[in-house]
Amino acid sequence: MKKKWYDYLWILSAAYLILGFFNILFAWLGLLCFFIPLIISITRGTKGYCNRYCGRGQLFSLLGGRFGLSRKKDIPGWMKSKWFRYGFLIFFFIMFFQMLWNTYLVFAGAQDLRQVVTLLWTFKLPWNWAYHGTLMHPGVAQFAFGFYSVMLTSTVLGLITMVLFKPRSWCVYCPMGTMTQLICKVKAKE
């Protein structure tokens, strides 16, 4: 089977994580992974992004499948359940809105917030080399640190589930996948 251009989008996911490691402002590019799936599901009523264009899912397939880093076990039933998927989506939204609130506070003049990458919403990582100030408002960097934290955390969760279960197990409870699935259900009723 001949490879298509979108079969290489895993490179963009890897590049995103690497670029954000060196300059946190690259984290803004992650908004593409947020808006493109929503636009596709709203306009087409499909999960086309998840099924074809998601570079993160491709990266997990590559690492877990071709490189054999997955145990290839079925994901537990509770992780597939609606209560877990919707609960995880709500939890992710809470973290996302907390990130937006912190960004707002910095734009409003708060000085006591720290621009830091947080892994698993708990562990503060020493990422100070990735940002040394720019001509932009500090709130721009605050958003980048927060968004990169969300993207890094979700990638780490995906890698953990990839190793423990099937390569694309993250896709079962991915907040974007759950959200686009909800949009598709609403569009199907129209």
3D architecture notes:
This protein is mainly alpha-helical and 190 residues long. The chain has helices at 10-22, 31-44, 48-53, 55-66, 77-80, 82-107, 138-164, 170-173, 175-189; strands at residues 117-119, 123-125. Strands 1-2 form a two-stranded antiparallel ribbon. Helix 2 (31-44) runs parallel beside helix 9 (175-189), helix 4 (55-66) runs parallel beside helix 7 (138-164) and helix 6 (82-107) packs antiparallel against helix 7 (138-164). The termini are far apart. The mean pLDDT is 92.
Number of strands: 2
Intertermini distance: 36 Å
Taking Cα atoms only, what radius of gyration do you get, to the nearest Å?
17 Å
Q: Percent range for helical residues?
A: 55-70%
Quaternary organisation of the protein chains: single chain
Percent of residues in beta strands? under 5%
Given helix and strand content, the structural type is mainly alpha
Largest β sheet strand count, sense and barrel closure: 2 strands, antiparallel
Mean pLDDT: 92
Shape field: globular
Strand order of the largest sheet: 1-2
Low-confidence stretches: none
> Strand-and-helix sequence, N→C?
HHHHHHEEHHH
Number of helices: 9
Topology (SSEs and partners):
Layout: H1 10-22, H2 31-44, H3 48-53, H4 55-66, H5 77-80, H6 82-107, E1 117-119, E2 123-125, H7 138-164, H8 170-173, H9 175-189
Antiparallel strand pairs: 1-2
Helix pairs in contact: 1-4, 2-9, 4-7, 6-7, 6-9
